[in-house]
Amino acid sequence: MMLLDVADATRQYISLLDGDQREHAVRAVTDDDLRHRWAYTPGARPGLVFGSLRRDQRKAVHGMLATVLSPHAYSQAAAVMALEDVLDHREGGHRDRHSDDFWTVLFGTPGGDEPWGWRVEGHHLSVNVVVADGRVSATPFFLGANPARVTYRGHVVGQPLRLEEELARELLDRMGPTARRLAVVSDTAPDDIRSGNSPRVTPSEPVGVTPAQLGKPAGELLVDIVRFYLDRLAFELADEEFARIDPERLHFSWEGSLRRGEGHYYRIQGPELLIEYDNTATEANHVHTVWRRYSGDFGDDLLAAHYDTSRHTVARGVAQNG
Fold first, then answer.
1. In 10 A of CB 112, how many CB atoms?
2. How many CA atoms are closer than 13 Å to the CA of 107, on its beta-carbon side?
3. What one-character DSSP code corresponds to residue 124?
């Protein structure tokens, strides 16, 4: 049912496009350069910008997002887009930001046996979806927020990525001082997520603490944090992703200050998993988060398996007919 919903929502969007729009919106799924060329900074992207779409077309793009994302993550994504107007006002409008400055590009179209996918992207949002042979890939998955917190007299009014920070701080508290000394690997946080918008990430030497070093309560919370990031996807997809995780091989590390309101960063690593969180810019009120898979970003693993199967199928057919 999940795959059918994703395909139906994508077909609905395509059905609303005219010929000229389709020409700009649809690219080949085999265009590896474009599929891997992603960003979370401001700027124009390939495809169609929300601001050029009719109301029904914009709603159809939101429908695509809502089929792939869980309800809470869709709410986060919508809040991230809306923050562009808040940020524009704070900056005095000199960078001309707007919540319509998000783009969608399609990689192929649903139907038949060929892979397809799409990306919805703009400042602080990048959702990359590829569908092949009945499976769905949705990484890199980036969410950011600037301002990360909007307050009134010290009370938080809006903070779309609040749990990403609070769960990690709870983990630091729960793990105790001995494990915390292992987890905090630097007093200085990096300026941004280390993986940036690189087209591929390779595993680095794991640092920090493992569940075994944390003990049961803190170790369970570390796994829960990973599940929280995976639960950005609709739960059926998140279950599939979680099944790939080896909880015992996770590592958690923290860099920067432990005090609220000061720059901090954390990373969670696993054999096929990278999660990064950074809040250092704009006086630690500017968050970047990303979830990536080393061999599976942009559906690379699904596409490789699909084309390998196709080659074997063709080869068998040639051998039988020969």
1. 8
2. 24
3. T
Q: In which band, very low, low, confident or very high, does the pLDDT at 2 lie, cut at 50, 70 and 90?
A: confident
Residues 255/265, Cβ–Cβ less than 8 Å: yes
Amino acid at 189: A
Contacts of 23 (CB under 8 A, 6+ apart): none
Q: Indicate the pLDDT class of residue 318, thresholds 50, 70 and 90.
A: very low
* Residue linked to tokens 């500017």: 286
C-alpha closest to that of 299 among 47, 112, 37, 115 = 115
The DSSP result for 241-309, as a single string, is: HHHT--GGG-EEEEEE-SSTTS-EEEEEEETTEEEEEEE-HHHH--EEEEEE-TTTGGGHHHHHHHHHH
- Residue 134 identity: G
CB 223 within 8 A of CB 211: yes
With cut-offs at 50, 70 and 90, classify the pLDDT of residue 310. confident
* pTM value surpassing 0.70: yes
Q: Indicate if the pLDDT at residue 22 is higher than 80.
A: yes
Residues 6+ positions from 271 with CB-CB distance below 8 Å:
203, 246, 249, 294
